[in-house]
Amino acid sequence: MAKKHSFDYFEAFVKAVDSSCAAASLLNDTLRNFDPDRLEESMTAMHKIEHAADGDKHRMMKVLIREFLPPIEREDVTELTQKIDDVTDALEDVLVKIYTFNIRTIRPEALEFMDIIVACCCSLKKAVQEFRNFKKSGLLSDCIIEVNDLEGEGDLLYTRAMRDLHVNSTDPIEIMVWSKTFNYLEGCCDACEEVANILEIIVMKNS
To answer: Could you state, in order of their start, the residue ranges of all structural domains in the chain?
Structure first.
C-alpha cells in the first residue's frame, strides 16, 4: 500500500510568504502610481490577498492539530505561520490607513520605505525557501542577516522622515497623518524582522 503523503509545511511557509510578497508588490504599485480615487480598488485586491493568506493559515492549523509528528515543534509552526501572516496584515494596514486618512499625495519617504519593504519580503522568501534544508543551507543565515540589515535601514529612514516632516511641515493634520503612516510603514519592516528572528531561533533549536 502506498504511503500517504504528509502535509508539506515548508511549502506552506513559502506560500504564506508569497502572499506577503504579493501584498508588498500591490502596495508598492499603488503608491508609485498613486491615484486616491482608485484606492478602493487597491483595497479590494489587497483584501483578497489577505483573505486567501488567512485561509491557508487556517488550513495549516487544522492539519497541525491532527499531525502526529510535524517536522518542527508545533509551537514553532504556529509562531512562524502567525509572524508571516503579520507581515501581510501590516501591509494591508498601511493601505487602509492611507485610505482612512484621505491622503491625496504620497511623500517621497513612503516610496523609500517601499523599496526597503519589497527587498525585505524578497529576502524573506529566499530564507523560507532555504528553510527546508536549514541544517545544510549556508544561504539561510545570509538571508536572515539581509532582513535584519534592511530593518535597520528602515529605522534610519523613519527617523529622517519624521524629522523632515516636523521641520518642514506647518500643517498639524499633515504631521499627524504622516506620523502615523510612517509608523505603519516602519511596522512592516519590523514585522519582516520578526519572521527572520523566529526562523533563526528555530534553526538554533534544531541544530
So the answer is: 9-205
Contact assessment for residue 85 and residue 54, using Cβ atoms and an 8 Å cutoff: yes
| Side-chain-side CA neighbours of residue 22 (13 Å) | 17
- pTM assigned to the model: 0.94
Class assignment of domain 9-205? mainly alpha
Q: Record the cell numbers describing residue 173, joined without a space.
A: 493634520
Q: How far apart are the first and last CA of the chain?
A: 34
Going by C-beta distance under 8 Å and a sequence separation of 6 or more, which residues neighbour residue 85? Answer: 16, 53, 54, 57
Note whether 12 and 56 are within 8 A (CB): yes
- How far apart are alpha carbons 148 and 152 in whole angstroms? 6
Tell me the pLDDT of the chain (207 aa) as tens digits.
344 448 899 999 999 999 999 999 999 999 999 999 999 999 999 999 999 999 999 999 999 998 888 889 999 999 999 999 999 999 999 999 999 999 999 999 999 999 999 999 999 999 999 999 988 878 999 999 999 999 999 999 999 999 999 999 999 999 999 999 999 999 999 999 999 999 999 999 987
Residues 6+ positions from 178 with CB-CB distance below 8 Å: 103, 107, 165, 169
